[in-house]
Model the fold of this input.
Amino acid sequence: MKNRPIGIFDSGLGGLTVLQAVSRRMPEENLVYFGDTAHVPYGSKSRETVTRYSLEVARFLAGRRIKALVVACNTSSALALDAVARSLDVPVLGVIQPGADAAAAATRSGRVGIIGTEATIASGAYTAALKARLPRVRVAPLACPLFVPLVEEGWWGHRATALVARHYLGALRRSGIDTLILGCTHYPLLKGVVRRVMGPRVRLIDSAEQTALETERLLLSLGLRRQGGRGTRRFFVSDAPKRFLKLARRLLGVRVGTVELHAFD
Ligand code: DGL
Done:
């Protein structure tokens, strides 16, 4: 059982930030990644659609005999985590709870900002997770839909991105938050520009790092942590594997040897 892979799934490419964090923390683990590139973006879709896509991917990964599943996509975690967890007989972890826990631990003022896709923000999932931990927390949620395409264009240092960030985050900066959750797989790549807009006093919470930590805790608690050696990596996408390969290398510097295609009917 310990040698079985951890499944990591995202709507596309961005979940590789979680894969990288998991890899850094647990290099011995075998990992199997699925990017649902045929259906990306999830962030502008309905709960029903995101749930249907997420269940398809989860079932496919269950078929790869995974020992645990990490739903690296914030949108899927926000909208479909319970449905996915009910459909599998291995532990399932999303990115919302780890991110909210880290933010609750970090905030001193009790004012926390959350940025994410339209669907993640509309779901209220981060707000609910934060309030469960810190009932008096004051939350400032904000959808930043242009951030994902800007990242995928490789424009995180571009002045257009700085302009968009200033536009989106201006009100948030004035709202007095001391902690900001980067509630989308792509946003860790915008840390620099977000930090410049928000200033040094606002703590940025990267749910990728936090999720890797929680995944390790979960595996240890279940006696499922693989020991020694170097783990394997396997990558699947539901469309355009060459594009995924190119973007993974260009955007994240992730060396993806082979990307296998698994198209859904
Ligand atoms: N992976 C998505 C998320 O973390 C962002 C991309 C999308 O909209 O599918 O919310």
